[in-house]
Amino acid sequence: MDMQPVEISPDIFWIGVNDHKTDLFEGLWSIVKEGVSYNSYLIKDEKSAIIDLTKELFTDDFLQQIQSQTDIQKIDYIVINHVEPDHASSVNKIRALMPDAVILCTERARKMLISFYGMEENIQAVEDGQIISLGKHRLQFIYTPNVHWPETMMTYEPDRQILFSCDAFGGYKTLSGSIFDDDRADLDEYIREALRYYSNIVANHSNSVRKALSKLGNMPINIVAPSHGLVWRKEAARIIKLYQTWADYGDNGGEPFITVLSGSMYGNTNRFLEKVLEGIKDVGVPYEVFDVARDQIAYILPALWRNQGVLVSAPTYEAALFPPMTSVLQMAAQKKAFHKKVARVGSYGWAGGAHRTFENLLNDLRWEVVDSFEFVGVPKAGDLIRGRDFGIHFANRVMLAQPVSSQAD
What we know:
Layout: E1 6-9, E2 12-14, E3 17-19, E4 24-25, E5 29-30, E6 36-38, E7 41-43, E8 48-51, H1 59-67, E9 75-79, H2 85-88, H3 91-97, E10 102-105, H4 107-117, E11 123-125, E12 131-133, E13 138-143, E14 153-157, E15 162-166, H5 187-202, H6 206-216, E16 223-226, H7 236-252, E17 255-262, H8 268-283, E18 287-291, H9 297-306, E19 307-313, E20 316-317, E21 320-321, H10 323-334, E22 341-348, H11 354-365, E23 368-376, H12 381-399
Parallel strand pairs: 8-9, 9-10, 10-11, 15-16, 17-18, 17-19, 19-22, 22-23
Antiparallel strand pairs: 1-2, 2-7, 3-6, 4-5, 7-8, 12-13, 13-14, 14-15, 20-21
Helix pairs in contact: 5-9, 6-7, 8-12, 10-11
């Protein structure tokens, strides 16, 4: 256990744990460098409650957090906002130590507790908007289905105006030193990791995010306490506004920047790409370059979600598009990174085929093709001249997309 409980408001404590062991979140998204926190919260009152649990691997650390603050037998309620194992797989071990504690969750979550953990006893399904009293504190339950599983809810403490927001407003990166936004000199890193988490985990459900944000719109919120990442006590409004911006990217295509997706077998496509990038630089449009064969998709998706422009640079491989590029574009479609402006460049040896694959992928991506260019073998002098002009033309088209907002708002 590398952190002690932290009081976020009188009688309300963060009792989370840090995960430095997991390499792939959900078995897919790289967190090797960043890690992740599993945030849980304890409210000590006439009746005491734990809000959210932890991953089974960290049950012992989690129990130490609870026991440092209260007798575990005195816990009356366990609020399960979300059944997913990173939140709740410790539930059987925890309940064995507090068998009389009542689990509070949605009706859908109650059924999922049976299918995931074989748990049926002492579970109370709460209604949307229902309020229970703990004594000085109250808990109000807010249904937020598909943010990001169908059984998900948030819990709100109306007297202190604290929103225990589950996966919403969360991010990767372990916590050390302080759990609060206003104590972090590296706040920009946590915001980047919140966007990465959004694009990896939540983006597919952006319509549901907008519905949840609308539901929260009239609620005064002083503190946002998510299940992963920072507790927002100074700039709670900022992370909520960022979520609105990020959710809207799915409809408006994002900011006037360019995501460059690069793949090359023997360097020929990359030689042409260098000239295209010179043209983009001439226009002054910011861009980010990713090697689709080497960069983990978890780091590519945030740029694809945020940036209006996409430059696909990859060769033909066995009469189809370079396979790592195909994989990236398929994931972009799965995550609903729609309404982009895209240009494609590439080489082929004796017969094409990459563009046919590319056009088929566009059926699911809803992207507007601005331009496309292929060459045979190595790029010739005339091709390289064309490359620079290609970049200028594409960058100017992306410039027409006006910023919808700034991440720094």
